[in-house]
Write a structure and sequence with these properties.
The protein folds into two domains: 15-147 and 395-477, nicotinate phosphoribosyltransferase, CATH 3.20.140; 160-386, Aldolase class I (TIM Barrel), CATH 3.20.20. 38% of the residues lie in helices and 18% in strands. It has helices spanning 4-17, 62-70, 77-91, 98-108, 144-147, 149-152, 156-179, 201-211, 221-231, 245-249, 256-266, 281-292, 294-301, 316-331, 357-369, 383-386, 468-475, 478-483, and strands at 40-49, 56-58, 114-118, 124-126, 130-136, 190-192, 271-275, 306-310, 334-335, 341-342, 347-351, 377-381, 396-405, 408-411, 430-434, 437-441, 454-458, 461-462. Strand 13 and strand 14 form a beta hairpin. Helix 3 runs antiparallel to helix 4 (98-108), helix 12 packs parallel to helix 14 and helix 14 runs parallel beside helix 15 (357-369). It is elongated, with a radius of gyration of 27 Å. The relative contact order is 0.16.
């Protein structure tokens, strides 16, 4: 039976462990302080995308990690004790650097003696370039730099979501530019449906926030909250009332008309989305929406109301065009300035099933082929937006490039004969703009005055706090910038 004193001690450690930075690392890193050469005083490492699916990356999410984990006096006596006890059990021996952590507690009052320099968040950088650099600021804490590789490399996730989202934005913008009168609707053309498909509430928050760098439509409230807490954005994303199948099918098959009418009357103004494929999407479009409720839809439109019809099954490129044709037959169409068909302003379609970077353009191509403007359609994306990604999507890696050992500067690198793609960069690094292109200058040969890396964190303090608005501006696609 657990004594009250032991139970209290366990509860204290459990509470500390939820925020214990000493435990946010890979096991083997706990032993690395014993593995560096004698008289090592500096270890400098960098993070990059070594290649991958997309030729450029949107750098985003480091500020979240820094604010969440690194800012302030994050080392305490209780956390050191908790880590020591856990690691002794974990390894079956004492590998823990208790003296090193106590030194940070006593010498630096629990603030981490590290410096992080990074490209501004939202910057779009071609792969194989340095994105951030980490080094210790106290020679006795050389082992600290790579202790945090595990945590810092997790920037791969928001960075990759933001990159994937931005490339989809480029596709949508191109087709809008070709088939629509303007790009006004672009910020809401890719809606985040990914909350339920994420691995956790935290990952939904990080990924959902990353998507909002490029768009403003989301149903992932966790993403809005992450942008609010870590990037100072009051409301980063917006949504509309929308039906799910349960709110339609509970009326019964014979009650579909009443279910649809209920949506129109309960939400008499603004945009409202209604899933319409519970039974027969074409009957829903042509008979229920197009005949039985047509006058209500038109009247609602006079007050600025917009009905957004949502198919949710079938082959997306085919279904989208068929739904547009069905609605167009009943409500009529106009031809825009580019010669493409438009539904009335009170009627639109959202395709939220099967949307990914690969599928999205196929749908838009088929719409163009049938002379439908892409402005009639909004996309919703879930798993493919926030979940169908991993660290190798952009081949993200964190490697040591420079150290000082016994007073001597050493350019550090790896160059495996079995995989040249994993060759790492040497020496001190700068990211510079040369002839309009990003270039990583290695071996300390760069010009510090031209270095685009900004010191964002030093000795436990955040030195640069990026707002969400400025990140969005930095990450904006060229087509929008050129139209502005």
């Amino acid at each position: 039976m657990t004594s009250p004193a032991k139970a209290f001690k366990m509860a204290t450690y459990q509470a500390a462990g939820t925020e214990n930075i000493l435990l946010v690392t890979d096991s083997y890193k706990v032993t690395h302080h014993m593995q560096y050469p004698p008289k090592t005083t500096t270890v400098c490492s960098y993070f990059e995308s070594r290649g991958g699916k997309f030729p450029t990356t949107v750098f985003f999410g480091l500020q979240y990690i820094i604010k969440r984990w690194l800012v302030g006096p994050v080392i305490t006596r209780e956390k050191i004790q908790e880590a020591k006890e856990l690691y002794n059990l974990h390894f079956g021996r004492d590998n823990f650097n208790e003296d090193g952590w106590n030194y940070i507690l006593e010498k630096h009052a629990g603030y981490l003696p590290l410096r992080i320099r990074a490209v501004p968040e939202g910057t779009v950088v071609p792969f194989k370039n340095v994105l951030f650099v980490v080094e210790n600021t106290d020679p006795k804490c050389f082992w600290l730099t790579n202790y945090f590789e595990t945590l810092l490399v997790q920037v791969w996730y928001p960075m990759t979501v933001a990159t994937n989202s931005r490339y989809q934005k480029e596709i949508i913008a191109r087709y809008l530019d070709e088939t629509a009168d303007n790009l006004d609707g672009l910020p809401f053309k890719l809606h985040d449906f990914g909350f339920r498909g994420s691995t956790s509430v935290e990952s939904a928050g990080i990924g959902g926030c990353a998507h909002l760098v490029n768009f403003q439509g989301t149903d992932t409230i966790a993403g809005i909250m992450t942008a609010r807490k870590y990037y100072g954005c009051n409301v980063a994303g917006f949504s509309i009332p929308a039906a799910e199948h349960s709110t339609i099918t509970t009326w019964g098959r014979d009650g579909e008309f009443e279910a649809f009418k209920n949506m129109l009357t309960k939400f008499p103004e603004g945009a409202m989305a209604c899933v319409s494929d519970s039974y027969d999407i074409f009957n829903a479009c042509e008979k229920v929406w197009g005949e039985e409720l047509k006058d209500v839809i038109i009247e609602r439109g006079k007050n600025g109301g917009v009905l957004v019809v949502r198919p949710d099954s079938g082959d997306p490129p085919e279904i989208v065009v068929k739904v547009l044709e069905s609605l167009g037959k009943k409500f009529g169409t106009t031809e825009n300035s580019k010669g493409y068909k438009m539904l009335p302003s009170y009627l639109r379609v959202i395709q939220g099933d099967g949307i990914s970077y690969e599928k999205l353009e196929v749908i838009l191509i088929n719409m163009r082929k049938h002379k439908w403007s892409s402005d009639n359609l909004t996309f919703g994306s879930g798993g493919a937006l926030l979940q169908r990604l991993d660290r190798d999507t952009q081949k993200c890696a964190f490697k040591c490039s420079y150290s000082v050992i016994n007073g001597k500067e050493v350019n550090v690198f790896k160059d495996p004969i079995t995989d040249p793609g994993k060759k790492s960069k040497k020496g001190r690094l700068t990211l510079e703009m040369q002839d309009g292109q990003y270039v990583t200058v290695t071996e300390g040969k760069g010009d510090p005055s031209k270095d685009l890396l900004v010191t964002v964190f030093e000795n436990g303090r955040l030195l640069r706090d990026y707002s969400f608005d400025e990140i969005r501006i930095t990450a904006e696609i060229d087509l929008v910038k050129n139209k502005a």
